[in-house]
Design brief:
- The radius of gyration is 15 Å and the shape is globular.
- By secondary structure, the protein is of the alpha+beta class.
- 17% of the residues are buried.
- It contains three helices and five strands, in the order βαββαβαβ.
- The longest helix has 15 residues, at 54-68.
């Protein structure tokens, strides 16, 4: 079974030049959070699925985000979304290496892992 895994970073405050730099490399969406504050979602890719070496892809994503620049003191989140078929029983087998966890800490980011059931035809 190959899991459909998507990765994005969520920022609450970004300067215009930071957003512009991120848009050169990533898909960026601006949304309003539940608390009324602006929230920026920066997607590793809007369509790419990461399934082979998720840990290495996340490290590359974080390094690329660092090059774009953001305030590591603010509440930023790296989100791992795992999509699975309704007919499957799965264990979320995402494992972050100590190197990835250190990089997350250096970026001042928390990690959120969520699972979403999808219909059998959507999961492929």
């Amino acid at each position: 079974m190959k899991l459909n895994i998507r990765v994005d970073a969520q920022f609450h405050e970004l300067k215009t030049e930071q957003i512009d730099r991120m848009k050169e490399t990533f898909s960026v969406q601006e949304r309003e959070g539940w608390d009324g504050r602006k929230k920026y979602h920066v997607w590793l890719s809007s369509s790419e699925l990461i399934v082979d070496d998720t840990d290495a892809e996340i490290q590359k994503f974080l390094r690329d985000l660092q090059r774009c620049g953001f305030d590591a003191k603010l509440e930023n989140t790296l989100r791992i979304a795992i999509f699975y078929k309704l007919s499957e029983t799965i264990v979320f087998s995402f494992c972050a290496s100590s190197q990835t966890l250190r990089l997350l800490a250096d970026c001042g980011m928390s990690l959120e892992t969520v699972g979403y059931p999808c219909s059998d035809d959507e999961g492929e």
